[in-house]
Structure formats: C-alpha cells, structure tokens
Model the fold of this input.
Amino acid sequence: DSGVTQTPKHLITATGQRVTLRCSPRSGDLSVYWYQQSLDQGLQFLIHYYNGEERAKGNILERFSAQQFPDLHSELNLSSLELGDSALYFCASNQDGLSTDTQYFGPGTRLTVL
Amino acid sequence: GIQVEQSPPDLILQEGANSTLRCNFSDSVNNLQWFHQNPWGQLINLFYIPSGTKQNGRLSATTVATERYSLLYISSSQTTDSGVYFCAVELYFNKFYFGSGTKLNVKP
Done:
C-alpha cells in the first residue's frame, strides 16, 4: 500500500458526460501528479500540482482540468467525455515536488466511456 | 517532440536469469526515471538516474546522458519481477515523457 488513495476505482459513463476523479496524497506529501494510461497513447503525464499551485502541464486536453485543495487532495475533472478518454488514470504524490524525489502511485481509477 | 524508445518490447525469462532493458531518448534531458508496473497494475518508481549508475538490490540502472540511453539490469530474476518496465525522461521541470515499455514475463 503506497498510502495514496484514489476514488472511485471504476467509473462507467457515457459520451458527453462529466466526471471527477479524486486523489488523496500520502500524509506529508505536498505534491500531486496525474497520469493517463490508455492502450492507444500509453502512459502520459497530465499535470503536476505542488501545495495548491500548478507547476507543470503535460498532454492534458482543454476538456480536462485539475486542482489541488488546501487539504492537499486533488481532483481531476474530465468533461465532454469521448470514447478515447477511456483509460486508467493514476495519481502519484511526493514530498518535495522534485523529479529526484520518489513518486508514490495510487491504485488508479479505471474510466470507461460508452 | 522528444522520442523515448524502449527495447525489447517483450521479454520472457526463466527464473534466475539476468536481463538488460534499454531506453533510448532523442534529446538532452534533465532527469530519467524507471518505473515498474506489476501485473495487477500498480506502478512503482524504481530509480531516478539522470547519469551514472545506481543499484537497489537485484536491480541496477546506468544512464549515459551524452549518448542518450539508459539501461536497467535485473539480476537473478524472480517471478515477482514480471510486469512492464517504463522509462520516463524529464525534458522540462517535472514534465515527463514515457517510453512504451518492456513487458517482462519471468517463468518459474
């Protein structure tokens, strides 16, 4: 158990809908990363937050947004969902937000868009 | 954009054998990391290794930044080593690009 929790574990929804994925980092970690893993695109870095502020942005679509709250949990919002958004979404956390600091991954949320 | 290529794509080993996984990248990078995803999907960050060599138990990694490649060595492989190994390069601050992975199957 990495100490990072993600909810829900599974999510099935329809095209055009909006969903929110939640991530709670390990106790003491200030930094949260979001990743998408799909059959088509493989693993992709989406976005990084440190202590509530966005620090780096990867291949995140405009239909997707994220935020990190004062209690350090983070949410990834996906809207106007398309079939191609079906994927595993992981979050990871570390203490310092540096790439030299080990990232600890949650178990992922599997999103299926029908 | 930067290209990150991993080889081989698939590898089957007998338990106890050694293996070398390779990651080539097309541009200078700030950092390089290796990850393992077990057959149940859990991701683990193995190493950050922008250059030089690091060891962690039966795993070691070497990055030759000037030649733009990194190697992950697995010695005396065990069935628990099975899964997919990803390398990821950091081009800009905390902006990671992943390879497509090497799928390892260690047979008892």
Observations:
- Chain A has a mean pLDDT of 95.
- The first strand of chain A starts at residue 5 and ends at 7.
- DSSP finds no helices and eleven strands in chain A.
